[in-house]
């Protein structure tokens, strides 16, 4: 069964390798590197037909270097992922999904945290032109747009942050709520036409700040937003090792809140260091599909795997 995965951090790993900062200077080949959970071979084996690649800037990077770091990761997306792998097809508009040929894999650029452009909306517009189709205002720390989920004060969006959401709407770009605190989430819901939680689970099952409580979940579903479950065990059951059954409990709960047609997958592969058993990289995706088919109809599982996302894309 085909898969769409709305979050991975392969670009950061590729950048660290290029800078000689990855595991004692190891080089990474996107096609087959064992250090990349989402390498091309794994995507093909797991039948992934769409992979989202996040641009993520480490909070330790000085402010005046963040834009350059973002451009480096975008360049690696174009040269190492697209340029060397003809089967990877850049999705620059949502309609491009409908033009994929058999065997091709959609590659989507996203931004995890507005730190990359600061308060410079010209830079943001450049990101749109380069093909960024989903923007999370924050990672876990605060920036000029909003507080992140890890900020103790839990503030909402700034005026700049609200302006970014409006620009996302105008450009048919997702606003990603996965790393926002509760107040920031509700600020986004007031304005966003295209909300998404690219990699979050149910907080009522795992009380982690990165998960969504039931009221947030209901609001997402009421506003045509998809929630893509994340495979990081601390967000599943607060452990370092979760099972497929533990992950499926989150899908069950989201379905119970009315989301059977608005659930997807957002693995967080290449950004996590602990894994669900039998779901350690993209090549193992069909293990999850086979387990889901024991509990849900084939049409429902196809929805989770890729059809819900395609049906709820912006602009459709």
From TrEMBL:
Q: Which SUPFAM superfamilies match?
A: Metallo-dependent hydrolases (SSF51556)
Can you name one GO molecular function term for this protein?
metallodipeptidase activity
Give an example GO biological process. Answer: methylation
Superkingdom as given in the UniProt entry: Bacteria
Give one Pfam family, short name only.
Answer: Peptidase_M19
- Protein name per UniProt: Diguanylate cyclase
């Amino acid at each position: 069964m085909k898969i769409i995965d709305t979050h991975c951090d392969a670009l950061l790993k590729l950048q660290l390798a290029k800078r000689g900062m990855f595991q004692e200077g190891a080089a990474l080949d996107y096609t087959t590197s064992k250090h990349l959970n989402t390498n091309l071979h794994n995507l093909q084996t797991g039948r992934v037909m769409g992979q989202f690649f996040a641009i993520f800037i480490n909070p330790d990077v000085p402010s005046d270097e963040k834009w350059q770091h973002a451009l480096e990761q975008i360049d690696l997306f174009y040269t190492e992922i697209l340029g060397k792998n003809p089967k990877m097809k850049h999705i620059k508009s949502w309609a491009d999904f409908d033009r994929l040929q058999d065997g091709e894999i959609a590659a989507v650029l996203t931004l995890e945290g507005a730190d990359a452009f600061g308060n410079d909306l010209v830079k943001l517009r450049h990101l749109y032109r380069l093909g960024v189709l989903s923007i999370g205002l924050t990672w876990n720390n605060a920036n000029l747009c909003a507080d992140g989920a890890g900020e103790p004060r839990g503030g909402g969006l700034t005026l700049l942050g609200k302006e970014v959401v409006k620009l996302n709407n105008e450009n048919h770009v997702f606003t990603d709520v996965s790393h926002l605190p509760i107040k920031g989430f509700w600020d986004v819901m007031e304005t966003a036409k295209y909300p998404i939680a690219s990699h979050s689970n149910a907080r009522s099952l795992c009380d982690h700040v990165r998960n969504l409580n039931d009221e947030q979940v209901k609001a997402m579903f009421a506003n045509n937003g998809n929630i893509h479950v994340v495979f990081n065990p601390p967000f599943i059951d607060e452990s370092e090792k979760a099972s497929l059954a533990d992950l499926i409990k989150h899908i069950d709960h989201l379905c119970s809140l009315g989301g059977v047609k608005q659930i997807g997958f957002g693995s967080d592969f290449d950004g996590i260091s602990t894994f669900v058993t039998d779901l350690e990289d993209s090549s193992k995706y069909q293990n999850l599909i086979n387990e889901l088919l024991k509990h849900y109809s084939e049409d429902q599982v196809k929805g989770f795997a890729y059809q819900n996302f395609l049906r709820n894309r912006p602009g459709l």
